[in-house]
């Protein structure tokens, strides 16, 4: 029990309060912020906040606030925010909005989402214009009054959760944007498939090889460029596993190091003969590495 004087509220942060005790002693607002409800008539859901840094005890009950400022307001005048002083009451449990996962939305089939899948927050905030009809995503879904709504972003989902009465009961105009059915990539013609599937990756690979202009020891320029593009595409293929990408990133780095041997040796070996003591410290190592590539050039470049 936190220390407080009669009729006063106290913060319960860092007290040894178990989840079971918190559940049994939550006040009439449950996990909702009483300050949000009293001042703005908003539903400030704090159920996802596990720490009690902004929670308080008053008259033997616990109250959770959404932030430090609201905690200070509650501690200064708690009677203003609890029954009977609070001007607004928490709606009945069946009238409280709750988040749904994408799987939960699918499991509710054949029930369909409201507003034909358009985001109610975007539509109303956009003054219910045609341009404000933006489709929501099932990953941002909310159930309210036994209806399902989906939203464009998490921020708009949170906005609906705070004030569902503002957004839930809207009518769509008679004319709405057509439903865009996804087109399977494999159904496109060859050029369309290449454009939509690999164009960006190939452009990046060609840009990289054009900037580097690699020439691998004992390989022709064409084969050097082709191997570099192949390594690059495998190293940055987002559909591959992390292990595969890392593997080919290392191969790509090794390929670039081998290509750098030619300009290094050509610049270092210019001029008259120099004794070993006057040569760069890594000259012998890089020269031996260069000569070793002549024996098994393909083995060092195998995909």
TrEMBL record:
Keyword Hydrolase among record annotations: no
Annotated localization: Cytoplasm, Cytoskeleton, Cilium axoneme
Annotated keywords: Cell projection, Cilium, Cilium biogenesis/degradation, Cytoplasm, Cytoskeleton
GO cellular component terms attached to this protein's record: axoneme; ciliary basal body
KW Cytoplasm (keyword) present: yes
InterPro entries for this protein: FAP206
An example Gene Ontology biological process: regulation of flagellated sperm motility
Main localization of the protein described in the UniProt heading: cytoplasm
Family: Belongs to the CFAP206 family.
Biological role stated in the UniProt entry: Essential for sperm motility and is involved in the regulation of the beating frequency of motile cilia on the epithelial cells of the respiratory tract. Required for the establishment of radial spokes in sperm flagella.
Protein name, entry field: Cilia- and flagella-associated protein 206
Upper lineage: Eukaryota, Metazoa, Chordata, Craniata, Vertebrata
